[in-house]
Amino acid sequence: MSASTVPAPRPPLRVALAGIGVVGGGVVRLLEANRDLIARRAGRPVEIVAISARDRHRDRGIDLARYRWEDDMGALVAADDVDVVVEMIGGADGAALTLARQTLGAGKALVTANKAMIAHHGLDLARLAEEKDTPLKYEAAVAGGIPVIKAIREGASANEIARVYGILNGTCNYILTQMERNGASFAEALAAAQAEGYAEADPTFDVDGIDAAHKLSILAALCFGTKLDIDAVTADGIRNLTAADIREAEALGHRVRLIGMAERDSGENGGGLYQHVQPCLVPSDHPLAYVPGALNAVVAEGNFVGRLFFEGAGAGAGPTASAIVADIIDIARDEYGPAFAMPVDSLDQAPAADAGARIGKHYVRLIVEDRIGVLAEIAAAMRDAGVSIESLIQRGGDDEDSVIIVLVTHEGPANAIHAALGILAASDHVVGTPMHMPILAL
Amino acid sequence: MSASTVPAPRPPLRVALAGIGVVGGGVVRLLEANRDLIARRAGRPVEIVAISARDRHRDRGIDLARYRWEDDMGALVAADDVDVVVEMIGGADGAALTLARQTLGAGKALVTANKAMIAHHGLDLARLAEEKDTPLKYEAAVAGGIPVIKAIREGASANEIARVYGILNGTCNYILTQMERNGASFAEALAAAQAEGYAEADPTFDVDGIDAAHKLSILAALCFGTKLDIDAVTADGIRNLTAADIREAEALGHRVRLIGMAERDSGENGGGLYQHVQPCLVPSDHPLAYVPGALNAVVAEGNFVGRLFFEGAGAGAGPTASAIVADIIDIARDEYGPAFAMPVDSLDQAPAADAGARIGKHYVRLIVEDRIGVLAEIAAAMRDAGVSIESLIQRGGDDEDSVIIVLVTHEGPANAIHAALGILAASDHVVGTPMHMPILAL
Ligand SMILES: NC(=O)c1ccc[n+]([C@@H]2O[C@H](COP(=O)([O-])OP(=O)(O)OC[C@H]3O[C@@H](n4cnc5c(N)ncnc54)[C@H](OP(=O)(O)O)[C@@H]3O)[C@@H](O)[C@H]2O)c1
Ligand SMILES: NC(=O)c1ccc[n+]([C@@H]2O[C@H](COP(=O)([O-])OP(=O)(O)OC[C@H]3O[C@@H](n4cnc5c(N)ncnc54)[C@H](OP(=O)(O)O)[C@@H]3O)[C@@H](O)[C@H]2O)c1
């Protein structure tokens, strides 16, 4: 390059951090540790100019004295020397949402790790960002350190996506892997996850699939060009899984994973959007079966690219900070566009698809009293509900009087399974709540 | 958005295609099939305005009559109505390179799938692109449809990358998977790959690791911020692998994969860059062990994000077109920057690291005459070369007079293995060429 064409060095990108907890602390550490490298890659230095959290005096294990502290988050937005506000507070509403609106409203760039807020208010925020022509980025909100928002928004952008699915919650995957390895019950595995710091004291958000639902709704909007619709996502968690389910799945050549899946019905079926989080049986020749521990993984199936599979750490200070700083670097490079890949007004409004009408094979597990005629009763219920049985296994149960019955159905609608279990709910011989899960089709 | 802020619709991005073979045909099909979707995502239509290949009259199985044909590639560049030239001719030099230089020299955008050309001339082309302030994009050049250039350049941009490695050649992986499943010899599996269209009549580029070396050199430059240096990449292919090697690896709980790996030595060791393609033993708890058939996969290890793993189709018309059109959409969106993430002049010049000094465990397989004293001879050679043996297995060989000896070493430098095999080369009792492979460390 001749000297005359060397562009003037670009001024630093000035960043304010709101929330210095697990993620915020990680971002401070990352920006300090990889400072020079980031400046080279971003084409300009990235500087923290101000920080804020609730309690100024809390020991956060990092030296924050060099940064300007603001007790009032609003001061981060108002400051003349702030280009980007990074929201790492959490919660769909409240302080996080207020800050996000203020930031975009002031025409400043917003980076967030907050899946709950994006799932609930992403459209409004994206519209505000468009009006103000300022970036809104949220790579860290889905699958932590895996750059899956980018991979789908930009890497797979040439494809019509048939479906997107994956392991979106590391806590659940950690629990399931524990159950798999040790034959532990759900309760035991949850306790282990809590002891290891992989699960919160109140694990509801994770184990009931709510966190995964937030992430799924974001992926669906990006993949299908539809308006985010968190209310249309249904979620079943993993609380009802037993050690026996994990064992029986294994005997069938499968592993149990909590899968969030979004799929758009064909036009003939109304073009509705299916968005569901639930435990599934994953066949052992599918890469999701090999995702261990607290990792996340996402699959996107495109009409030209085929199946893409991405795996990595879905949470934690380092991986989440990696995603946040990648967003910051994109902003420093001026490489960004509409938050959901296209203007909000051009996103489709897709009706929710009828989940019960979805066709697939299912796993059904019942615990029944060990007496003559019970099997006939189950078979009759299945027949009457129109469920066709591919295979059935009966094994001794945990106590002498009960047996476990595991059946795999032929392809059929989920509704038929619900109907059959409805019939059996009236039976005196069925013990506890039956479990049923779809078997993931390749 | 208020009506007054609606931006004027952007004009179409006008694309010229050079080379209408496997990949070029795929790009035509993709741009036609997903036309509306691409316009929505790109924010403007993407239009093919001209095409070119060698033989205008060749039947390409697609209707090209609607597109302007140019016999002379140069006319694509010269045309006023062309914004982007897509090079899908192939070859490191010749027509492809001429076209690439003309395109960038004219200040037009270049998209290419040509790993050979990027590996050999990527730096010069990137410099030219910088001078002319025009995009140079090459997502399709590495790992086909997997958006791994983007994932590393942008998704992992906040991280110092410790090493990058993966399965970069689908032909080899197909052959290895065949050997694994059927116990086939290399020659049999190669013939099957040729029959299935996964290998060329002359498979040299693939099976000797040259194609993987091209891709590895590109990944290394991106990950480490170093100047592309294809001459520093060393490659061992898979020709010398036997059915017994695959079987013994399996018995040790491993799978054999052709791995391209790049790693930067620490400053203390001179900061050199190690870039090597070779068959490796991959432990069964590593995701690369589960990559089947012609798929590709790439692992990048970042200092904050940890291990990222990307898998998908590494070749073929559809996946390669997907990557090319993703590049085109980035250009349409004005979301692009320097080809190697930073200006060419700021890339480091890294010396080649001493591959022989690399520490690791190794697999060694020898076929020896079945007679007293041979084992002692081997053990002595290993001892004299400083190789420490972790385990050794002796089995009956393919004929009565020979036995197979498989040993796994403790951690040590590759040089010591070479020295030991050098000593044994002089032995009358060793039959054929011994095989040795590193065992991939997690
Ligand atoms: N942790 C992960 O692995 C992970 C992964 C992906 C995404 N995320 C998302 O990242 C966000 C932050 O998560 P985190 O794990 O870092 O949470 P955290 O450790 O609880 O940290 C939250 C931070 O926000 C501050 N804060 C909370 N409420 C506030 C309020 N009303 N006003 C001002 N500051 C307030 C806290 O201040 P004090 O420290 O002073 O109390 C704390 O610094 C959440 O949206 C989460 O979903 C987290
Ligand atoms: N195939 C894959 O799966 C794949 C995957 C990733 C990357 N790539 C890369 O993509 C590029 C194209 O590969 P391909 O498989 O599509 O090759 P291909 O099927 O052999 O097609 C090559 C095309 O280039 C034209 N061509 C060749 N030499 C030419 C010359 N001297 N002047 C003008 N046109 C010329 C040919 O014209 P005619 O048709 O008239 O002969 C043909 O249309 C290569 O760089 C390859 O490495 C391929």
TrEMBL record, chains A, B:
Keyword vocabulary terms for this entry: Amino-acid biosynthesis, Methionine biosynthesis, NADP, Oxidoreductase, Threonine biosynthesis
Cross-referenced Pfam families: ACT (PF01842), Homoserine_dh (PF00742), NAD_binding_3 (PF03447)
GO MF, any single term: NADP binding
Pathway assigned in UniProt: Amino-acid biosynthesis; L-methionine biosynthesis via de novo pathway; L-homoserine from L-aspartate: step 3/3; Amino-acid biosynthesis; L-threonine biosynthesis; L-threonine from L-aspartate: step 3/5
Domain ACT: residue ranges: 363-442
UniProt-listed CDD domains: ACT_HSDH-Hom
Gene3D superfamilies hit by this protein: 3.30.70.260, Dihydrodipicolinate Reductase, domain 2, NAD(P)-binding Rossmann-like Domain
GO biological process assignments: methionine biosynthetic process; threonine biosynthetic process
Binding site for L-homoserine: E200
Residue numbers binding NADP(+): A18, G19, I20, G21, V22, V23, G24, G25
Binding, NADPH: K115
Active site: K215 (proton donor)
EC number from the UniProt entry: 1.1.1.3
Family: Belongs to the homoserine dehydrogenase family.
PANTHER family in UniProt: HOMOSERINE DEHYDROGENASE
Name of the molecule in the record: Homoserine dehydrogenase
Taxon lineage: Bacteria, Pseudomonadati, Pseudomonadota, Alphaproteobacteria, Sphingomonadales
